Amino acid sequence: MTARSSGRPRVVVLGAGFGGLWAARELARHAVDVDLVDRNNYHTFLPLLYQIAAAEVEPEGIVYPVRSIVRKFPNVRFTMGEVTGIDLAARKVSAGGSELPIDYLVLALGSVSNFFGVPGAAEHAFPLKTMDDGIALRNHILSRFEQAQNERDPSKRQRLLTFTIVGAGPTGVEFAGALAELVRGPLVSDYRSIDFREVRVVLLEAKDAVLGMLPRRLSDYARDRLRSMNVDVRLGTAVSRIDAESVTLLDGAVFPTETVIWSSGVSGDPVLRSWGLPQAGGGRITVGPTLQAKGHPEVYVVGDLSLAETAGAADPQVAPAAIQQGTTAARNIVRQSAGMEPLPFRYKDPGTMVTIGRNAAVVHMLGRSFTGFPAWVLWLVVHISNLIGFRNRLFVLVDWAMDYFFYERAVRLILASCRKCAS
Ligand SMILES: Cc1cc2nc3c(=O)[nH]c(=O)nc-3n(C[C@H](O)[C@H](O)[C@H](O)COP(=O)(O)OP(=O)(O)OC[C@H]3O[C@@H](n4cnc5c(N)ncnc54)[C@H](O)[C@@H]3O)c2cc1C
Predict the structure, then answer these.
(1) Which candidate in 174, 181, 205, 258 is catalytic?
(2) What is the residue with the minimal CA distance to atom 5 of ligand 1?
(3) How far, in Å, from the CA of 111 to the mean position of ligand 1?
(4) Helices (DSSP H) in 185-297: which residue ranges?
(5) In terms of pTM, does the model score above 0.85?
(6) pLDDT tens column, 392-405
């Protein structure tokens, strides 16, 4: 890697997700040199990742090449590579086989699935955090149907055709709805020898409500809507063990399933501890009001990894928080390098919206709540407009239109090999 000799402050931004990309875009407008690093050469629009797993949209529709974004900015350089270490004393980062010198660091490495120590979960459950996860899950689900259509043993068929989602937060609810529609729509025509009364989509939630962070009226609507779509919603049900062929519940009940999707929680990547960055609750890094890490004023932490607080409450691990924090961190770095005090961050909550399926969503914003078709239309408009790039919006719109008007999911493809598809 060639060194830069502009004499301007060097800012390394780790992670090209929502937090890191928005930080880099803001920094690009100022007199600093920026190194943006990610293990992937693309940015992933995670809110639609579950639609990859449900064969609803094509992977290319929700990712965008980072280089297409940064090539517009002469002072931003992108490195594709794994971040393997941070040495704050020596002021350098090891990434992609290179060492990058830092004056300022923006840590925006996101989160990993938190299996809460449930035995077997890390080995046997499918996380839904990356594009690879989404494609692997799609492959696995479709492969279960391929196997089930020739399976004569009823108990084996039951395992193959039971799909269990753990965690009824937004991702669990959205995926349960999308999977139920995939199963009851396109797959019924594809697998004519399968008796679809044998197919079960189960949603397990330890708390007593789905979408527990929303007002009760909205969570009840989502629960009832899922049940009307034949999703077996089980509340107050905690998982105690997962293996390759079953899930065991805390009350001792065991039910057979070869597909467990884990959407129950996230934490900061435990590897950060070995880099000397102390992790607090949920593996997040505690920051002060200005988003600077405790004891390291040159390090800003944003997005899922940041334990930032607004009005005494931890900021949520959602895309708008990451975007707002990334932008604020960038502005604070510019202020700091000009000898000014960084400004405190305040999260502005734009509201929450979750879709359950065709014509059904819940929206809670600006103190108002609504459900049904208007909420669903708003969900569509917001998600399409937040995708990066005209081509991506067009791809996703076409896929949605095919699904809505023709009940056709064009991406019912078993493509790459994946760790759990075989057998
Ligand atoms: C399935 C799913 C659905 C979601 N739905 C919604 C939603 O509907 N609305 C909403 O607001 N939020 C949603 N979220 C949450 C939202 O996506 C996150 O809060 C947001 O992405 C956090 O941004 P971030 O920049 O912290 O992390 P990310 O966007 O995850 O970006 C982290 C980046 O760091 C890179 N990286 C990580 N470790 C390394 C390493 N060691 N070396 C190199 N690169 C690395 C990753 O490749 C990634 O590009 C969803 C999340 C998921 C997983």
Answers:
(1) 174
(2) 47
(3) 7
(4) 186-190, 216-228, 271-274
(5) yes
(6) 999 999 999 999 99
